[in-house]
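User: Show me sequence and structure for the first protein, then do the same for the second.

Assistant: Starting with the first protein.
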Amino acid sequence: MLQEGAHGKWTVSSSDESTEENADSEKPSTSSLLDAARGRKSGPQYPCSEARKAAHKRKASPLKLSDKSSSTEIPPAGKQRTSQEGLGWCLSSSDEEPEDQEKLSHEETLKEEKCDAPKEHPLNLCKDDELSENQKAEEYNETPSEAQDTWDLLNEGNPFRFFLTKVRGIEQSYNSGALHIKDILSPLFGTLISSAQFNYCIDVGWLVRQYPQEFRKKPLLIVHGEKRESKAELLAQARPYENISFCQAKLDIAFGTHHTKMMLLLYEEGLRVVIHTSNLIAEDWHQKTQGIWLSPLYPRLPQGTTGSDGESETNFKSDLISYLLAYNSPTLKEWIDLIQEHDFSETRVYLLGSTPGRYQGSDKEKWGHLRLRKLLKEHASSIPAQESWPVVGQFSSIGSMGADGSKWLCSEFQESLVAAGSSVTTLRKCDVPIHLVYPTVNNVRQSLEGYPAGGSLPYSIQTAQKQLWLHSYFHKWSAEVSGRSHAIPHIKTYMRPSPDFQKIAWFLVTSANLSKAAWGALEKNGTQLMIRSYELGVLFLPSAF
C-alpha cells in the first residue's frame, strides 16, 4: 500500500508475518522457475517471509504491458493498485513491538499455517543442473584480471577495509573496488581450512556454490536462529553435505531474530573475520547495495603466548570473544579458542554488537545503543560547534518508535548517537538534526529489481500509521557517487558528518535496522536495557586511524 502525506509517498504494508518467528522480515527468495515448469509449487526453497514470497511471485509472473503502456511515463500508483493488492510486497518484521504483533496474531493464524508448512518437493540444491534459469543468471563469474584487481585492492587501496558489494547492471567502473561473496571466499585470500557463517536467511545450496570447488567439502558451521518448521527446512537443505554442521542461536525473548551477518574464515595462513549486511542468498549479492568490513589476515600467535596477547588498541579480539560467549553454545568454543590463538593487533575498528537479554549495571554498556554511547564518549574526538553536525541513519527496516519522538528515537537513542568525548558538555538533543534515509516508492519502482526489491524493505502499515511524526525525518535513497542510486539499499549505516558533509566524526556499518529490537530499549526507569535480537557491526573512529 502507498502512504501519501506531506513528506511524499512511502512504502508501507499490512503484516502477514508469524507473530513469534516473523524475524527481521527481510528473508528474501530466489525464483524457482524450474520447479514451476515441472508443475511444482513455485517458491523459494529455504525459509523466508511472506514479503520475499510476494516479491518472488511478482518476479516470476511480471505484469504484461501493451506497447501503448510501455512509454517512459511512470503509471499512477493508484491504477496499479489492483494488481498489487494482496501481494503485500513490503511486510512487517520483528522490529515490530509485541503490542503491535499480538493484535494481528488471530487473523494471521491461517496464513501462518499455510506458509510454515513443510515444502512437498524434495530439497536438492546441490546439483548445478537443478538450478533455475534465474539462479544461473545470478551466478557470478570472475575473470582472472578481476581477481588480480581484487587482490591488489585488498593489499593496497583500502585502509578502512570497508567495501560495497558488486552490483549487476551498473557501469562496470562503479564495481571497481567492490566485492562479491566469491571474491571473499577466493583462494587468493587464503587456503581455507574451515569456516563459520552467521546469518539470518540462508540458501544452503547457493552458499556451497559460492565456495571454490576445492573448498566445498571443508567443515562449515552455520549459525542461525530458525525454529520448528523453518529449522527443519534449513537442516533438510544441508542433508546432501556431510561437511555442514549447525548452531542454533537461542532467542529467549519474543520477536527477536538472529540478524548478525558474519564470516569466520580459518586458513592455513591465519584467520579472517568478515562482518557484512547481506543474507546468504543470491538476491542479496546481485542488485542491492550492501556493505562489508573485511579484516586483515590475522597471523597465528607464537606458541607459549597467552590469549590476551595479540589484542588491538580497539579491544576487538576480546569484544569478539565476548560476543561469541553470549551464544552460550559449546559448538562455538572451538572458534573462541581459535580466535585466542591469533594476533588481532592490526584491527582498527571497534566491534558493536547486540545480544538478546535484559542487562543492568555495567552490563548495560556491553551491547546495543548504550555500547555505542560508551565508545563515542571514550574514543570520539570533541566536535567544534557540534550541534550543527547532523546524525544520519540509513536502514532497510523500521520498527515501532512510539507515539512521538520522545518515546525512544529522540530520547535514549539520539542521546547515544550524539555522545562524543567525555569532556564535552551535554547538548540538548533536540539541537542536533536527525536525517533518516529510507527508500521511497519511486526508489523501489525505478530500481534495478523493480517492485520485488520492496520485499526487503519491511515497514508495516499498522506501525507507519501510528508514527506519522517519524516521516518528517525521512530522506529518499540516492547514491550517485557509487553509481548505486538504483540498487536498493539493504546496507545499514549510521554516521555523524559535518554540516557540509566534508568531514565525519564517526561511521558505523551494521546489521541493525532502526528498531528497539535491534538497538535495545531502556526499562525500569532507565536501570535496565532490553534487547531482543542478535546484531553485529563495526565502528570507524578517526582516532583509530
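Switching to the second protein now.
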Amino acid sequence: PGQAAMYAGLQELGVANGEDLKETLTNCTEPLKAIEQFQTENGVLLPSLQSALPFLDLHGTPRLEFHQSVFDELREKLLERVSAIALEGKVEERYKKLEDLLEKSFSLVKMPSIQPVVMCVMKHLPKVPEKKLKLVMADKDLYKACAVEVKRQIWQDNQALFGDEVSPLLKQYILEKENILFSNDISVLHNFFSPSPKTRRQGEVVQKLTQMIGKNVKLYDMVLQFLRTLFLRTRNVHYCTLRAELLMSLHDLEISEICTVDPCHKFTWCLDACIREKFVDNKRARELQGFLDGVKKGQEQVLGDLSMILCDPFAINTLALSTIRHLQDLVGQDTLPRESPDLLLLLRMLSLGQGAWDMIDSQVFKEPKMEAELITKFLPMLMSFVVDDHTFNVDQKLPSEEKGPIPYPSTIPEAFTKFLQDNRIACEIGLYYILHITKQRNKNAFLRLLPALVETFSDLAFSDIFLHLLTGNLTLLGDEFSLEEFCTSLFDGFFLTACSRKENVHRHVLRLLLHLHHKVAPAKLESLQKALEPTKQSGEAVKELYNQLTEKLELRKPSPAEVTETPSMELPLPTVPTPASR
C-alpha cells in the first residue's frame, strides 16, 4: 500500500508509474532496451540535458538522486508561484487560475511528494469546491494534513466535527484553571487573579481557538454556543472567562470582521481595562453604565451575553474589590451607600453577573431586581464593622484608665449571618470584606465574622476561588496559628464543618497545612492530622496531599532522645494575653 500511495493518481493524468514499468518489464524480451525507452519517455525532456547526464554517472550520482533534487526544486518553485498567484491580478482571475490548478492536481492529493502543492492551492482558495471538501473530510489522513484555512471551510458546515476539535481544548482550559486554584504554592502576592488579562490571553487554549476561528463569524458563534451550553450544563464560571478572553484575543489581532458584530465588544474592552487595574474608576464606570442603559427594546438578548461577561470571576473580583474600596471611602465621607451612584452601578453589574446562569437558563432577558435591603441594611452594616475597627484602634492608643481597655466586639448581628445565607450579592461582598480584613492582618475582625461563613448562599464560602484567596491571605496571619483559640475557630469552627462532605475543602485545608504546619502547636497539629485522614471515598488528590503532609511531619518529629527531656519544652511559649482575650 505504501508503494501504491507513492504513485496515487498518476494513471488518471496519463503519467506512467511504477506499475507501468513493472508491466513493461514483465512482457518484454529485451529489458535493458525497455528501461532505456522508459527513461527517455518519462525523463526530463530537455535536449541539452541528455549529454550532461553521463557526467553524473561518472561521479557516481544515482539518477534517482538527480531526479529527486530536480523534483524538489520544481516543487518549491511551484509552491512559491501558487502563493504569488493568490495575491496578483483581479480577484476572479486569480481564483480561476487556482481552481483550474486544483482541478488538474487534485487526483494526486494522496501522493506524498505532490500533496503539499495540492494543499497549498486549497489553502489559498477562499471557497474550495464542495466536492473536494467532502473527499478531504472523508479521508482521515487528508483531513489531518490540510491547512486550518481549509478546515475552517469544512467546520463551518459541520458543527459536530468542529465540536470534536474544540472539546479537548475546553477540557484542557478548565483543568488549567483548577490546577491554579489548587496549586501547592500559597502566596498572597501571586494568586489566581495575579496574571494580567493580556498575559492570560497568551495561553495555549485561547491562542489555538483564536487561530481555529480566524475571521470566520460562523465558527466564532459556534464556540460561543458551546461555551453557553457548557456553562448551563456545569455552572462552571471559567467558561465565562474564556468567553471574554476569546473576544479580547480577537480584539488584540484587530479582527474587525468579528469584533464589530459581537454586541459585547466595547463593553468587554472597557471592562478588560478595569480588570487590568483591578478597579473600576469613575470614567470607566460612566462608560459601562452607558452600555447597560443603551440596551434597546427588542435587543434585550444582549443582556444574556453581557451577564456572561460579568460572571467571569476576574470581573466579579474587580467589581467586589471596587465595592469594598467604595464602602471604606463612604465611611470617611459620612455618606450612605444609597447616596453613591458609583456604588449602585457596581452592585448593578455584580447583580447582572451573578444572575447570568438564571438568565441564560430561563431565556428571560431583563436585569435582576436589586433588593432594597442590600443597600439600606447590609452595606451600612459592613460600614459599621469598619467603624468598629477604627474605634477599637483609637481606643487602644488612649491612655488606659482604671476600668481597663474596651474589648473588641465579639458578636455579629444576626442579620449579617442571614444576609450571607439568603442574598447572593450580599454573600459575595461579605466574603470579599472578610478577605480584605484578613489581608490587613486584622485577626480580631476575622475571628468575629468567621462563624458567619459556615452557612452561606449556595455554600459560596466553600467555593474554590474564595478558599484559594483565603488560604493565601491567611499566610499573613501565620504567627496566630500557634494559638489554640485561633486554630479552633478556623479549623474546628469553619474548615472541618465541611471537609467530610466537600472534597475541595479537604484539599484546601491540606494545602494550607502543607504551607503552615511548622507554625501550628504540636498537639493541635496531631488532632488535625487525625481529623484530615482520607477515607475510602477520598479522591487521589486528597490522598496525595495527605501523604505529602505526613512526610513533612515525619521529618519534623524529634528523635527519641529529645522526647525524654522535660515535657514543658514541648508546650508553646505562654502568650501574653491581648486586651481582647481578657
